[in-house]
Amino acid sequence: MITTVVYTSNTGETEKYAKAFAEMVHLPCMDLKHSSDYAEGTSVLYFGWVFADHIQGYEKAQQRFHIPCVCGVGMSTAGTKDETIREAMKLDDNTVLFTLQGGLHMKQLKGMHKLILSVARKSSISSLESRQRTPQEEDDLLLWKEGGSRFDPSSLTPIVSWYEQYQAGVM
Fold it and tell me: Which of 46, 107, 152, 171 has an alpha carbon within 20 to 30 A of 1's alpha carbon?
């Protein structure tokens, strides 16, 4: 049985999703760096921000907790990078993965993350501007150019449904 929500956030998008989810399902929620009071092996639902197809903090959380479900929050449209992330993270078939679209906040980034994302930003803008775009790609271009948040609590609905089935022992 999942007893808490644990997250790692960089610019606040992941934290918003984790706290919104925890409120929806009436669970406590805490940042991974403040989770030392929980016993090893505690079953948690983990939210982490995605960088270079890796869910940040997951490996550290996995060392302490049982994580049947992990939620990655990144710039990509929800669900579009699931297989890439699953492969990069070497997630086994027993670990459920959900991805959510967060946002881009260049001013909040520091060091290597800011440098890498600056390069990716220029490349992505150039690539998107050079071709016909779908409505989703138009939104992606706007996000790359202007930054901002794509936080949408309604995108948590499938995760809430999974959680309810898991807690009921259906899964």
Answer: 152
**Which residue from 84, 85, 80 is spatially nearest to 70, judged by alpha carbons?**
85
Task: Indicate if 99 and 110 belong to the same structural domain.
Answer: no
Within this chain, do residues 30 and 114 fall inside the same structural domain, yes or no?
Answer: no
Q: Which residues pair with 44 in a beta bridge?
A: 4
Q: Give residues with Cβ within 8 angstroms of 27, minimum separation 6.
A: 2, 3, 4, 5, 45
Percent of the chain predicted with pLDDT > 90: 77
- Measure CA of the first residue to CA of the last residue in the chain; give whole Å: 11
> Which amino acid is residue 150, in one-letter code?
R
Q: Tally the domains of the chain.
A: 2
148 contact partners, CB below 8 Å, separation of at least 6: 103, 104, 105, 142
**Residue 45, SS3 per DSSP:** strand
- Specify the pLDDT at position 147: 92
pTM above 0.85, yes or no: yes
Is residue 58 domain-shared with residue 44, that is, in the same domain? Answer: yes
Whether residue 80 is found in the same domain as residue 19 = yes
Burial string for 99-127 (b: 16+ CB within 10 Å, else e) reads bbbbbbeeeebeeebeeebeeebeebeee
